[in-house]
Design brief:
mainly alpha; 56% helix; single chain; two-stranded antiparallel sheet; 94 residues
Length: 94
């Protein structure tokens, strides 16, 4: 998640911007209520991203906006169980 956290945070901003677009055309325009409902759902998703992501990763919103998120190593092992170029037999997760 930390590798793509900045993209997810920007997606939340785009979802909130989409709310204004869809809600404006849906509730105030002549397109009906369905675009307005899509806008409200986008607003809720965007707020979850904007509020929940910094709390989950324990970083500030400014660091997410500027893509200053430190990537954490996933595992010492690759998908084939190789450690430092040597073959490790048995369970690669021990």
């Amino acid at each position: 998640m930390p590798n793509t956290a900045s993209l997810v945070y920007w997606e939340g901003i785009l979802d909130i911007a989409g709310f204004f677009f869809f809600a404006g055309f849906g509730f105030l325009g002549d397109l009906g209520i369905i675009p307005g409902v899509f806008g409200i759902v986008g607003l809720l998703i965007g707020l979850v991203y904007l509020i929940g992501l910094p709390k989950t990763l324990n970083i500030t919103a400014a660091n997410l906006l500027l893509d200053r998120v430190a990537a954490r190593p996933v595992s010492r092992y690759t998908y084939k169980g190789v450690l430092n170029g040597q073959k490790k037999y048995g369970n690669p997760f021990i």
